[in-house]
Amino acid sequence: MNESFVLIGFMGAGKTSVGRVLSDQMGAPLLDTDQMIEDKAGMSISHLFETRGEDVFRCYETQMLEELLSSRADGPAVISTGGGLPMRAENRVFLHRLGIVVYLKAEPETVIKRLEGDTTRPLLAGNNALQKVQKLMDQRGPVYEESAHVIVSVDNKAPKEIANEILNKCNCENTEQLGKQR
Length: 182
Ligand code: S3P
Hints:
Helices cover about 55% and strands about 10% of the residues. It is an alpha/beta fold. A five-stranded parallel β-sheet has the order 2-3-1-4-5, sandwiched between helices. Helix 2 crosses helix 4. The longest helix is centred in the last third of the chain and has 19 residues.
């Protein structure tokens, strides 16, 4: 597999945990846009939202993609992205240039179950988490679907199973076809 994988999808869909398994299996580095932003900003995502606002965070996301594109000349990588990153049209162009875009598709109930007790997602802080998830998913679902070369459903599956499914799908689906869809 010479191409990089770019994992997109909702918070709690398992992009980071699946990314870890994929990166082990491929022997390729795992690059996480949220982690890159935290390193660059010198603070947690929650603190960044709180002190500088969501718009600044979104600008960091675009900047990280630009950095990834200019630094990723050598070999494949697995890139895990923040759940809201594909919502900017310019980011979607960058994602396609970075590699095979894989949408990890989760039902709202899966997200809620996985993020129970989590305090690191500012967009889901406070009450009515399920309603918030559903509303955001309604907005984002079609964009994720449209941006993805490959869609993998993640409900009730372990990261290893999901990683294997991604590798199987991408080995089977001929890369020429993927190229045409981009
Ligand atoms: C966000 C998702 C988070 C993080 C930030 C905003 C979003 O990443 O980027 O809290 O807008 O959905 P994960 O998808 O890794 O949770």
